[in-house]
Write a structure and sequence with these properties.
Blueprint lengths: L1 H21 L9 H20 L9 H21 L2
Family: Belongs to the YggT family.
Pfam family, one: CCB3_YggT
InterPro entries: CCB3/YggT
């Protein structure tokens, strides 16, 4: 159970990384894969973008979102391993 949950969280983190990297390529987010990833990732990234404004051309909210998800995943694995 824990292994499946951890794998799903890793898959979601990968989706976030791909979505962030797609911003470097013009028109990539308008592709079918970009729209699919947007539907999955944007609900999680939006609160971070509201809290952390972009620093010039650099948006670090994605990095903060990834770190937060990683810490939450590790905490959840520790909590679930106690049971």
């Amino acid at each position: 159970m824990i292994d499946i949950l951890f794998r799903l969280l890793q898959l979601y983190q990968g989706a976030i990384v791909v979505y962030i990297l797609m911003s470097w390529f013009p028109g990539a987010r308008e592709s079918s894969i970009g729209r699919f990833l947007s539907a999955i990732v944007e609900p999680y990234l939006t609160p971070f973008r509201r809290i952390i404004p972009p620093l010039g051309m650099i948006d670090i909210s994605g990095i903060v979102a990834l770190l937060t998800l990683q810490f939450a995943a590790q905490g959840l694995v520790v909590l679930l391993s106690l049971f």
